[in-house]
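S.,

Sequence below, as promised.
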Amino acid sequence: MNENILGIIAGILTSISMIPQLVKVLKEKNAEDLSWTMILVLISGLSLWVWYGFIKNELPIILSNAFAVVVNIILLICCMIYKKKK
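The prediction came back faster than expected:
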């Protein structure tokens, strides 16, 4: 398999991986089972991948990870809105 195709497929799958979770949270308006820490660590790691993509001038890395950062920031905002205060 061509390494570029492999990278593009991996980027797409990684980028969309949290969309089902986001849809579930938005439908149920419930974020009780989500970990803020996990989402923050994930956003940090994805942001570093975006930075790395800029350093290497690799548009697929930049785009796929930037999209994933946006999805996870929306998920984090949903956490703040929908988590019940204890």
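The mean pLDDT is 91.

Coffee later?
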